[in-house]
Amino acid sequence: MSRKPPILWSFLMLAMVGCSREQPRATVWRIAGPTMGTTYSITISDPEKKLSREPDLPSISSKAEQVLADINRTMSTYDPKSEISTFNASTSTEPISISADFARVVHRAKEIHQKSHGAFDITVSPLVDLWGFGHRGERPKPPSMDEITRTLESVGSERLEVTLEPPALRKSIEGLRINLNAIAPGHAADRLGKLLDELGYQHYLIDVGGEFLARGKSDSGKPWRIAIERPDRSVLPKQTIQRVLSVANRAVATSGDYRQYFEFEGKFYSHTIDPKTGKPVSHSLASATIIADDAMSADGWATAVMVLGPEKGMQLIESLDNVEAVLLIRRDDGTFEEQASSGAKKMLVDAPAAP
Q1: CB-side neighbour CA atoms (13 Å) of 244
Q2: What is residue 352's predicted lDDT score, i.e. its pLDDT?
Q3: pLDDT in tens, 171-204
Q4: What is the mean pLDDT of residues 93-116?
Q5: What is the pLDDT of residue 354?
Q6: Least confident stretch, 19-23, 50-54, 252-256
Q7: CA 56 – CA 61 distance, rounded (Å)
Q8: 8 A C-beta contact, residue 127 and residue 151
Q9: Which residues have CB under 8 Å from 256's CB, separation 6+?
Q10: 308 pLDDT above the threshold of 50
């Protein structure tokens, strides 16, 4: 697994879809900035016109950036002094004290690992590096089977222990490393949501690198609308809309195979690595959009489904409470088959016509 690019976007950022021009419009405010190698945005609306004064955007922005900076200091593998980097560099197999927030994220990752039968694995970072999608940079051709086999010896969440009280991590082998890129952005969205809740805002949409947390209503007084991108490599870097989700008080995350990949001898190699085989997935699932109660869970489940593929992935989603999915499956002719879980079907609306 490696950090997936943002492949969802809010209609508030593109066009106010679903609002008639004659309809009175509530005021809406937005702040945005860089974070975690991607971007974040916070959109606050006041559809019921209950706010006594406009939000103090500089203050909200400052508080939000403090939250994001704290997450970076804890979970960024690009910061050699972060908690995760310190743990990765350690050769000790004794418990290492960590922050409570860090422990909660790893604990949730371990739960998703177990429920996905190993498809989601935060220890897969060495394989991501081996295939040229990590710190080592790109490679011109796939690694050998011997290289993959050797690297698999340092992978496996069953070799990682986490405790919440006291918060600590322990690795059972010296070479174990973890990477939270497939779950930390969702966690960041949840943390920003908690901040806005504490500040008294009820209607907002948060986006951290394409992982969304929607609360209340948009300024139209309707649920927030979030677009699912068409996972078409041939039109990149242009973005086109496949479908639209109407979302209220849920989180949305997407993982896909079409932005981070390399081609060798006519074959495409995705950045999504199966932790069991040590190789990029080779099934037909192009993207998985997950709707859940919190963004951290949606983020993790999206990667798990991309590893499992369309059939096993949908079976997993249908077995979970309050988790829905929209899967886009690549056909041989370049078109996409859409599969949606029972609950997701109720949230889907047609994409707007191209201008």
Answers
A1: 17
A2: 62
A3: 999 999 999 999 999 999 999 999 999 999 999 9
A4: 98
A5: 54
A6: 19-23
A7: 9
A8: yes
A9: 4, 7, 229, 231, 286, 287, 288, 306
A10: yes
Q: Say yes or no to pLDDT of 320 above 70.
A: yes
Q: Kindly state the average pLDDT of the residues 231-241.
A: 77
Type of residue numbered 313:
G
Average pLDDT over the chain, rounded to an integer: 90
Burial class (CB in 10 A: 0-12, 13-18, 19+), 269: buried
To the nearest 10 degrees (0 to 180), the angle between helices 100-115 and 184-198 is 130
* Secondary structure of the chain in HEC code, one letter for each residue: CCCCCCCEEEHHHCCCCCCCCCCCCCCEEEEEEEECCEEEEEEEECCCCCCCCCCCHHHHHHHHHHHHHHHHHHHCCCCCCCHHHHHHHCCCCCCEECCHHHHHHHHHHHHHHHHCCCCCCCCCHHHHHHCCCCCCCCCCCCCCHHHHHHHHCCCCHHHEEEEECCEEEEECCCCCCCCCCCCHHHHHHHHHHHHHHHCCCCCEEEEECCEEEEECCCCCCCCEEEEEECCCHHHCCCCCEEEEEEECCCEEEEEECCCCEEEECCEEEECCECCCCCCECCCCEEEEEEEECCHHHHHHHHHHHHHHCHHHHHHHHHCCCCCEEEEEEECCCCCEEEEECHHHHCCEECCCCCC
Put the strands of the sheet holding 167-171 in their side by side order.
96-97, 167-171, 160-164
